[in-house]
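Form 7-S
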Amino acid sequence: MQFASIGMITTAINENLRLGALKSLDILDTKSEKEFDDITALAAFICDTEIALISLVDKDRQWFKSRYGLDVCETPRSVSFCAHAIRDPENVMIVEDARKDKRFYQNPLTEKEKIVIFYAGVPLIDKDGFALGTLCVIDSKPKKLSEKQLNSLKALANQVVLLFELNKKTKDQEKTQNKLKKRNEALREFARVISHDLKMPLANIITTTDLLKLLLQNRLDEESLEYFEYIKSSSFSMSGYINDVLSHYESESLILKKPEEFNLNSLLQEIVDLLSIKPDFTIHFPDDDPVLECNKSALKQIFFNLIGNSIKYNDKEEIIIHIETTIDEKFYYFRITDNGMGIPNDRLDVIFDLFTIANTEDRSGNKGNGIGLSTVKKLVEKLGGSIEVSSQEKVQTIFDFSIKRTS
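Output:
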């Protein structure tokens, strides 16, 4: 009696684990899918039966992920042939004439409706050994399957299991992507709020520093004045860092801008004006001044960052920048060449990584934050293009990037 009780408990535990494995597929009550429907149609054809089903055995029902030759989408587990088939996962359950089988001769599907006279079900076994249901073929008259038909049915059942696993992986990836999307949205909002809340205090620090220097300049020694200058320069650095973080997370909104038609050189002139280019800077625009039709706002941000970097990381008395462009049927191609500091060879592979910098200091002695080029790459790829960099230290740096045409 004690052994019987232990056996019942073990069976209940195994059934709970099996149902858990079934639920984890997240496939019950989902819409029909062609990949599964093709398998049931092929199974019915190969076995020459009226019906073929991909049946999943739930707690109180069997539900059909795919059904060929049958209108109903589920039946009670109490009348299910498949519920018997999953009890012996290692073997195919074949019932040649259910009217002569003591398990089914009084089954309403056999006795009254006479839908299931012949039945062959291959258990669908997951990677953990749980029988989730069956791929089964059914006919309303007695029948036998040849060895070739039986082997084909087993092969199709293996494909069903593979589809289950593929579907689960796809859904898991979608869930992960949704979580990452929500996390990125939260980070973007956090960056926006923090940036907004820090800008005003930083502006106050800079203004107060200038005011204190003016009021106390006759009472402070040179070292004290240097401290004030350090506070001011540090505040400006932090302000720049905040702006770059905000630009990085807001770059997603730029991608949503609609394409518009414009002259490239006009866009470049806007950037030159924004950067307050000095007389010792020479920027050569493309000679042909092409007319582009694309996301102007995103392209402007890309050029703003790249040209800005070419100026900041330049140690020459005269800064020279060349901008070139070519166009084919699918892409716009751009090249920016400068005569700056160059990028060390061991940094070329990581230069576009977030928070990675190529040089320790720019021409003004300030350290970069490694956000700008990461933002550039993000925008370029969102625009359907790619970006590469080549460089020779102390000589030049060349950025080549492309964006997909919208017309």
